[in-house]
Amino acid sequence: MGILIAVIAYTLLGLSIVLDKMLLKERVRGSSIVFIFWIGIANVVLFPFVFFGFSPPTAGIFALGFASGAFLLLAGRFYYGALERGEATKIPTVIGALTPISAALWSLWFLSTTLNIAEWVAFGVLVAGGFVMLLSDEGKDRRTFFWAIGAAFFYGLGNVTQKIVFTETNFTTGMVLYAFGMAVTALALLLRREWHDAIFAQSTAAPYEKRRFYIGNRILAGIASLLIFYAIKLEHPALIDAVSGMRAVVAFLFALLVMKFRPKLLAEHFHGWKLAGKIAGTLIIIIGLSGLGLERYYAQQPLPPASSLEWDVTFSQKMSQHFLDSDVSVSAENQSSDPNGRRSWKNNFSAIVDELKPRGLRLVAYWDLIEPQQNEFAFDDLDWQMRKAMDAQIPVVLAIGQKVPRWPECHLPRWAEEIRSAKSEIRNNDGEANFQKELLEYLAVIVNRYREYPNLLYWQVENEPFLNFGECPPADAAFLEKEIALVKSLDPTHAVLTTDGGEFGRWVGAATRGDVFGTTMYRKVHSDVFGYITYPLTPEFFRLKKSVVQFFTGKPQQEFIVIELGTEPWEKHQLYEIPADRGRSLFSLADFKNTISFARATGFTDYYLWGAEWWYWLKTAQNDSSYWDYARELMTKNQ
Description:
Helix 1 packs antiparallel against helix 9 and helix 3 packs across helix 7. By secondary structure, this protein is of the alpha/beta class. It is elongated and about 105 Å long. The chain is built from 26 helices and ten strands.
């Protein structure tokens, strides 16, 4: 709401700027002093509000409220001084570009709150738009620029001071204190003889029509100022000042209209690169406002109640066994004297089912484990997992295909790799076609074997097939459709889940082809270019992306879930290859909790946590159950 109020306010101020320039077009020296004097005195109309909700402030708040009025009147002095000397479209452009920076710097010094990532991005775009408009101006007057810098300095300081006052007291009290500071500072202008004479001489000499025009415009600007005050109460002042670029946009557009229909009223010049720059800056500012508006819209949408959230787990037999077999995973004592068989991945899986009690499980059918030799199948391990989950009445998403969870993503039997890479001398022998034939036959065997399990929830066909990640061939959309069609033909009862990367995946390709869509969601990752980073995204990014994708797919009711919520370290090496302390330094328990908080705010209801093998290893081999205990608390609290 604060952003919308600010947009309306700066739209009104943009109109007021052009009207003020019409009044100042004769450029009478000292006119700006007359303007700000009466602006300050006009604030006495706010004094009666002392009887409507005014709360006696402390001495400190009184001083800050008074100072905010004084600072903003000084800002007005510089602003109208610049307007008196420059073009009506140039001055708000300069001030609109510089004031947000001033407010941001003052905020860092005085305020404890700051902007979130999305707000900083919008702030940057809005400021960039202002600078594009600024750089398009020709023949910049250094003296005018000095006045504009002074205005930006005091506008930023005044707005931040106002925010402090509004934080400590109610809106009425802050407004009255501001008005008192404005009025007293305006009266102080009379102490200088030159200004005293100019104020009364020009005020009485002005034609009646001009005075009426001026008063009407002051009412317009006054309404806009009150709206800005309220917006500052609701939002961060740097963000509100960033929206002030709208003032320059409106001034530019209104000036164009005036020049077209009443050119004698305004001496402005738009042509060539200047016009192009103004248009480009306008578009950038509109983009920034649109992005900020979308962020605010999604941030205000209600989230699902906590009781409706489902916290699930992905389990990888391979990953669990890697931890237990690696040199760094289990101490020598545990390797030689563990009477409970802790080194079996089955203990890990049993602990997940019996201790964590997740609402759902994602299991993986690894082709290289199930069909190690062509047409020779080993189902014992996956059968055991499915039955164990069934006995606990836990629904299962079964991931099938050549590309399934965990590195290297594509888990192919050696014989299948040889078929794919075969270069036979026999004419028309296509290794890829033969490979695909074998894969489809394997999928048919898997579907026919597990489709009758009562706890089977979805078939996940391939894992992030459109994301270029892992040791896998490029995506083949046509073959993916064949895989999905085969699964549906063999088992029309269960839905097909398709997945894509959360941050960089396009989603549309996967969501279009699946009945249910699953996204990944990570916060802290490793990049070969930037090293270890936290994605600069807000929860609203995922909510917006979901809405956009559902619009383009034409499937507004399609279920979206988080199939892979990263709750383990992201290392450039495999986790079972690094010491525990290294992993904990990359992904602390606080990071785990922050990831869950972030996920809750995205608005999804179903989350499959990624990292249970690592938590279990920490618990059993490193005597650190903190991650495991937190996951258990998370999963059992709503049962």
